[in-house]
Specification:
six-stranded antiparallel sheet
Length: 345
């Protein structure tokens, strides 16, 4: 086990989860998870005086609700009901499943971070030497700007051109490295929200990971969206596989826009791992399928599964003014802070 990885895991538990001695950390993993990451987290907890328990399960064939039939729900719930913090390393994530919903509803103190499929390299890139003070300031300021935005447009050189309107007052998830409060957090470096779904029109082109179907496609996947619904999927072999996967559920919500997001982690690199790809600086994410109640309160929109897809080096226009240009911040009110975020510790 790498000493550096244990140190990063200590930073995760101490600085992001803000765990205290004597608290209980539950680590969940499946047969596709990175064992070295799990062991490093166990070692970090031990050194910090944190109690820990690890639950390994067989990786299900699907994620979220689609994994319900294969997740040992009673065992997962029984252990997590006692936890103060939950590090979810499952490659096929429990997040969004019935077991997850049961636990989060009942254990009001639980701090959960979805670190699905995290590898040692991912933790090194996205947590190891990130300046969280600057990242949090930048992310909070950007989220506030988005919350007041009316019309937005995203463009890439690969052919993406999508426009939409926001819904005032709808939540914006700020995934900025603070897992010290009850509820679910994600790997730091993204803000995400659900726009006015019916207003989303244009062309999406993805050259980052498409989860859970494939990693980085050899040929970009093009999706035509009309009034918030995917009406055509085209491209190479990965596009065909993705279209088949959407159709396999026989459910119209799988073709519906779920949310969008902006990647702002300066350490994230294109890897084929959706967790990291969504956070690559200057990337945008679009998702299809189920919508959580944390995005569209109070109950979200039910669907049999969920998919996240990433486009890199985006140009983002907020109410007609460029914020990102080919993935770089050009809004003068943000450029100095963006530079501080990209300085490493």
């Amino acid at each position: 086990m790498r000493k550096e990885l244990v140190q990063i895991a200590q930073k995760l538990l101490r600085d992001l989860y803000r765990m205290k001695q004597g608290e209980l950390l539950v680590i969940t993993a499946d047969t596709l998870s990175d064992e070295e990451v799990v062991k490093a987290t166990e070692s970090a907890a031990q050194q910090l005086g944190i109690k820990w328990a690890t639950l390994w399960i067989k990786a299900p064939g699907g994620v979220a609700v689609a994994a319900d039939k294969e997740i040992p729900r009673a065992a997962v719930a029984a252990l997590l009901m006692q936890a103060d913090a939950w590090a979810e390393y499952n490659k096929m994530w429990i997040y969004g499943s019935s077991a997850y919903n049961e636990v989060m509803k009942s254990n009001k103190k639980l701090r959960h971070m979805c670190l699905t499929g995290a590898t040692g390299d991912l933790l090194a890139h996205c947590i190891g030497d990130i300046r969280y003070d600057a990242l949090q300031l930048f992310g909070e300021k950007l989220a506030d700007k988005v919350s007041h935005a009316g019309c937005m447009r995203m463009i890439t050189e690969k052919g993406m051109d999508i426009s939409f309107e926001n819904v005032k007052g709808r939540p914006i998830l700020k995934e900025l490295g603070d897992a010290g409060k009850p509820g679910t957090s994600m790997l730091p470096g993204q803000i995400a929200w659900t726009p006015c779904i019916e207003s989303v029109n244009g062309t999406l082109v993805f050259d980052g990971a498409l989860a859970p179907v494939c990693g980085v496609p050899k040929e970009p996947v093009k999706i035509t969206v009309k009034d918030g619904k995917a009406v055509e999927v085209s491209g190479g072999a990965e596009a065909e596989a993705y279209g088949r996967w959407l159709n396999s559920f026989g459910h119209k919500q799988m073709f519906g826009i779920s949310h969008t997001g902006l990647g702002i982690n300066p350490g994230a690199v294109l890897s084929g791992d959706i967790l990291q790809d969504q956070r690559v600086w200057g990337s945008v994410t679009w998702a299809f399928g189920s919508i959580g109640g944390n995005l569209v309160p109070p109950d979200g929109v039910a669907g049999p599964s969920h998919s996240d897809c990433v486009a890199l080096d985006a140009t983002l226009l907020i109410d007609g003014k460029e914020f990102f240009r080919y993935g770089e911040v050009v809004d003068e009110a943000f450029t100095d802070l963006a530079q501080k975020v990209r300085e490493r510790q």
